[in-house]
Amino acid sequence: MAPQERFFVTGALGCIGAWVVRHLVREGAEVTVFDRGRDRRRLALVMEPEELARVRFVHGDITATEAVCRALEEAQATHVIHLAALQVPFCKARPPLGAAVNVVGTVNVFEAAKALGLGQVVYASSFAVYGRRSEYAHRILPPDAEPRPFTHYGVYKLANEGNARVYWQDDGIASIGLRPYTVYGPGRDQGMTSAPTQAMLAAVEGRPFHIPFGGVCALQYVDDVARIFVQAARTPVQGALVFNLRGSIVHMQEVVSAIEAVEPQAQGLITCGTAPLPFPDGAEDGALRSLLGEVPHTPLQEGVARTMEHFRHALARGILSPSSGTPD
Ligand SMILES: NC(=O)c1ccc[n+]([C@@H]2O[C@H](COP(=O)([O-])OP(=O)(O)OC[C@H]3O[C@@H](n4cnc5c(N)ncnc54)[C@H](O)[C@@H]3O)[C@@H](O)[C@H]2O)c1
Predict the structure, then answer these.
(1) Which residue, 181, 130, 142, is CA-closest to 16?
(2) Is residue 52 classed as helix, strand or coil in its secondary structure?
(3) How confident is the model at residue 327 (pLDDT cuts 50, 70, 90)?
(4) Hey, which of 16, 72, 126 would you mutate to test ligand 1's pocket, going by the most ligand atoms within 8 Å of its Cβ?
(5) Using CA positions, which residue lies closest to atom 36 of ligand 1?
(6) For residue range 192-239, what is the model confidence (pLDDT) as tens digits?
(7) What residue spans define the domains of the chain?
(8) Per CATH, is 6-317 categorized as 3.30.450.40?
(9) How remote is the CA of residue 58 from the centroid of ligand 1, in Å?
């Protein structure tokens, strides 16, 4: 790590953000967290108190242009990882707020980067920019598959990719947008695809849990995703690049089996539906690996085992209260 690195991470009280911050703090980087929330439970779940004490917190709303610009400037940031967003169900329930947070919020991050003279932004896009599985000839999408979002959330994420292109064209701000599919692991407790992680927690607690979907989809361990964001932020690029993430492309029944392999007593307690998620199974990530070199990849069984061990440990230490992982 270069000594002068100062990371500015938006939405870092969330699942991916907590792991990004954990990773950076363990490397000794300076980290400023910008988030509207005040609940540090995900950070506390994945970091030690003395690590958390090294993080600088700015409480602010990503939709407020001035506040974002001021915070970025005060942090004297050298790297920006923009994760703040509202997920699919929240955007569906409140589309105007979703547009403000997800689209205006991202524009604000680019504006702040421009004001500070920062040359690059890394931001979270999503696999939700793609259309329904029936619209594609491939089950695993090639890099040139056409985005056809069918949710407000997906449309907002695609708009961000378009705005990123314009910031490169007009202002020379380079960017990397990363499109995760289903992220799982400690801290994943909200959003449409959080059910596999909730099932892992339920199994540790000996509770029944039904994952409401089935079929094949891509699952990626949150620590891998976080490391990829950090790697991308440290990789200077030209242009407004966007990459799919891959992870493990697996059947939901394999997830149930992986949970049972870790906790045999969960047999029969954890079930999944039959209907697959509406999206294609996953996407190739060759283009991302060409840019970054090898990307971290934790195999499903290992990621499930690590997640369940983490939950067991956190429950025993009282960091996670029983059943607190149920959907918000
Ligand atoms: N988790 C996934 O499977 C997944 C998949 C695809 C894309 N993504 C994207 O990755 C990013 C991180 O995902 P996550 O799972 O960590 O999300 P999360 O919902 O756990 O966290 C989002 C964070 O954004 C913050 N936030 C919301 N509104 C804000 C506002 N107005 N101002 C400032 N902060 C605000 C929240 O307080 C929260 O801490 C998001 O952009 C998400 O859309 C996630």
Answers:
(1) 181
(2) helix
(3) very low
(4) 16
(5) 11
(6) 799 999 999 999 999 999 999 999 999 999 999 999 999 999 999 999
(7) 6-317
(8) no
(9) 16
Report which ligand 1 atom has the smallest distance to the Cα of 84.
24
Using most ligand atoms within 8 A of CB, pick from 33, 126, 328 the residue to mutate for ligand 1. 126
Query: Which atom in ligand 1 lies closest to the alpha carbon of residue 15?
Result: 16
Q: What is the pLDDT of residues 26-65, one digit of tens each?
A: 999 999 999 999 999 999 999 999 999 999 999 999 999 9
Rounded average pLDDT over 253-280: 96
pLDDT attached to residue 321: 79
Instruction: Compute, in angstroms, the gap from residue 49 CA to the centroid of ligand 1.
Output: 23
What is the pTM for the complete model shown? 0.97
What distance in Å separates the CA atoms of residue 301 and residue 45, rounded to the nearest whole number?
21
Report the sign of the C-alpha dihedral through residues 273, 183, 278, 284, in that order. Answer: negative
User: Which atom of ligand 1 is least distant from the CA of 17?
Assistant: 16
- The residue with greater pLDDT, 36 or 325, is 36
270 forms beta bridges with 209
Q: What is the distance in A from the centroid of ligand 1 to the CA of 85?
A: 4
Distances (CA, A) of 112 to 66, 107, 246, 287: 8, 9, 30, 28
List Cβ neighbours of 92 (8 Å cut-off, separation of 6 or more). 98, 151, 152, 153
Res. 3 pLDDT band, cuts 50 70 90: low
